[in-house]
Design brief:
Largest sheet: 3 strands, antiparallel
Radius of gyration: 25 Å
Shape: elongated
Mean pLDDT: 79
Order of helices and strands: HEEEEEHH
Strand order of the largest sheet: 1-2-3
Distance between the termini: 58 Å
Helix content: 25-40%
Low-confidence stretches: none
Length: 121
């Protein structure tokens, strides 16, 4: 591949912060903090894509993994933990289908039994 060095240079250039973006005629000029400029030819194109977000906290999927049962509603790991903690604290029974065996369940129960109000706050 003859342009490998150019690709590596471009990769290093775009890893730095952008100072300014200018539009002239049919060109977009990206100016980086170190003074280098990257000129792109063509018109701006607006992408209309919907990034999944957590229905509870609004975090987008590129920050945290999201989980969904129906591909329409999503929940992140942090909100899932908060929900489970809240249900346990309120004494609400949860029928969880855990994907692991008896030894791991025993360890989880042992850990839960070690939680006291003093060390849980």
């Amino acid at each position: 591949m003859e342009n490998k060095d150019e690709l590596e240079q471009l990769s290093e250039m775009i890893k730095q912060p952008i100072k300014n973006i200018k539009h002239r005629n049919n060109l977009t000029i990206i100016e980086f903090i170190d003074g280098q400029e990257l000129t792109l030819q063509g018109n701006l194109v607006e992408l209309n894509c919907k990034v999944p977000v957590c229905n509870f906290c609004g975090l987008p999927s590129f920050n945290y993994p999201l989980f969904s049962a129906d591909k329409k509603n999503f929940i992140c790991k942090d909100c899932t933990e908060l929900v489970v903690e809240t249900f346990f604290k309120k004494g609400i029974e949860m029928k969880l289908k855990l994907p692991f065996g008896g030894e791991q369940v025993a360890q989880v129960l042992k850990n839960l039994n070690q939680i006291t109000p003093e060390n849980n706050e």
